[in-house]
Design brief:
Largest sheet: 7 strands, parallel
Number of helices: 6
Shape: globular
CATH architecture: 3-Layer(aba) Sandwich
Helix content: 25-40%
Structural class: alpha/beta
CATH topology: Rossmann fold
Distance between the termini: 33 Å
């Protein structure tokens, strides 16, 4: 049985990650920005712990780490993220929105990872998995736009790569994964992947993640994406 912490666990991919982790017998720590009643309705709730934390706030991240002091974590899944707002196109760009997006989508996962390193060091499998996006791929950007979101996810990708290099000697693996275009509030109803299918793929890739595959840009279906 694994002990897995999931950020952004109140809805969408994060909620489904917690649901599937509990369903397969693992224990989960669901990190949410505000109370999420749906979490309390999940089967296996005796193996679920819910913690409040805004991953865009460094002080709250430090408080979360202190609250979990002494706990061993086998994996941390940095899922919390935002879309970036309506003003991230050429000729219509809001710098304040972009900074907030970077704070949550890029710095947030890095700060959570750093704060929880002592907990991962006590764990068995020692894995960091960060939910990124195909829109964070520089090599695959053929449509432009979405400046804030693309830039933040590209920065997250680089942070994960550096973590993989810096933590290899400690036996801690780090990778980013594209969840696909998922039918969530962010992805919209027109998306081509159900949240259940995406999460099954994500957890399959988490299980396969090792020091040999650490530092890669993974896809939920398997394989790798262009940086």
């Amino acid at each position: 049985m694994m002990e897995v912490l999931v950020t952004g666990a109140g809805r969408g991919i994060g909620l489904e990650l917690v649901r599937q982790l509990l369903a397969r017998g693992d224990s989960a720590i669901a990190v949410v920005r505000k109370p999420a009643p749906t979490l309390g309705e999940l089967p296996g709730g005796d193996r679920l712990r819910v913690e409040l934390c805004d991953v865009g706030d460094e002080k709250e991240i430090a408080r979360l780490a202190k609250t979990l002091d002494g706990l061993a974590l086998d994996a941390v899944i940095n899922n919390a993220g935002v879309w970036g707002g309506e003003h991230q196109r050429l000729g219509d760009f809001d710098a304040a929105e972009a900074i907030r997006t970077y704070q949550i989508d890029a710095l947030g996962p890095l700060l959570v990872s750093l704060a929880l390193l002592p907990h991962l060091r006590r764990g068995t499998t020692k894995k960091l998995l960060h939910i990124t996006s195909g829109m964070g791929s520089i090599g695959d950007n053929t449509s432009g736009g979405f400046y804030a979101y693309r830039m933040a996810k590209a920065a997250l990708n680089m942070a994960s790569r550096s973590l993989a290099v810096d933590l290899k000697s400690e036996g801690i693996a780090s990778a980013v994964i594209n969840p696909g275009w998922v039918q969530t509030d962010m992805g919209g109803r027109g998306a081509n992947t159900t949240v259940g299918d995406s999460v099954r793929g994500i957890l399959t890739q988490l299980a396969a993640l090792s020091l040999e595959t650490s530092g890669r840009f993974l896809n939920w279906k398997g394989g790798e994406l262009l940086w």
